[in-house]
Amino acid sequence: MSSNQKTILFVDDEPAVLEGFQRLLHREFEIEVALGGPAALRRIEAAGPYAVIVADMRMPDMNGIELLELVKVSSPDTVRVMLTGNGDVETAIGAVNEGSIFRFLTKPADKETLSKALAASLAQYRLITSEKELLEKTLSGTIKVLMEVLSLVNPAAFSRATRILYCVQYIVKKLGLPTSWKFEVAAMMSQLGCVTVDPDIVEAVYGGQKLLPEEQTKFDAHPVVARDLLSSIPRMEPIAWIIAQQCNPSPIIPGISDPETLETIRLGVNILRAALEFDRQVASGTSTNTAIHHMNESKRFNPEIVQALIGIDLKCDRVEVRTCRLKDLSPGMVLHQEIRTSSGMLLVAKGQEITYPLLVRLRSFRNQQSLVEEIRVAIPHASNTYSLAGK
Description:
The protein contains 15 helices and ten strands. By secondary structure, the protein is α/β, with parallel strands linked by helices. A five-stranded parallel β-sheet has the order 2-1-3-4-5, sandwiched between helices. A three-stranded antiparallel β-sheet has the order 6-10-7, with no helix packed on it. A hairpin with a 5-residue loop joins β8 and β9. The chain is elongated. 33% of the residues are buried.
């Protein structure tokens, strides 16, 4: 968490006013000051977001509303307070109604009024950040559970989702995209709808086999199934639509009017489509360079996204491969071979990480029927993992 989580930044164009705030409030609050809007922005960029910013309305170069609107974009969790003269009250009320500021204070404000307002602002900041932390932990836990379910119900789909995630991570890093977590979660969840599809059908699709019409219909529905599963989870609606439109070169997103959200969804769909096609070609035996060439030649994918795949190393992780007995498997190991039952049912796909629920499932099957005892596992020295931390 930022070192400024309890700090209040006062912004004014008069040094004497700033000194007065420091003398008046330094015993109760952690106070810093900035002389004018541009100086405040430089301080925020250097020191990180503040808990509260109190800005004077009338300042040269940049007035208080202009400053706080910029802060709202760059540091949305920061609580914004305006100091106004009587003649600016109507303007300040409009800023409150538009969400640019938390509250306004008229000048001159006495110490008691200031103290109460600042205490309320800090309390609001704690509420915002604690709710955000709770939501992120809830979202992260939900994603983990859903991926565990997919790994148990449909190992082949889980394995593909893991490969897609790596491709998407590589693309967003090469493109320097600021909202990468949404695209990464969409990649992780892209095959979630396969929980409703027979594993044999999924394996056939990934193996390039032709399906019967009714089987193809079931498989083609999996993106919409995933959307329906995810759309009711907070913050997941844009991600749900990225997944739902993953095969559509011209995504249709009803009910969303915000331009920024629409652009995020369209970009996410284009990235996911490219990653899925790249994985399909490589899984069929095509080299990475040839796959990129074919995708460019087809003109069905965003050329900038396709170019971002150049240089990807699908064997980038250094691993130690060893043979391990089934009873000695432990969480964190990665399977270097697939595991099937005696009847041929795929239990775990190659490349899947061992988790505790997966261990329970393997031991259960081991007790019921014959499973291979000697299993090749890879122990990564570095792994590509997804985290919501700092998102």
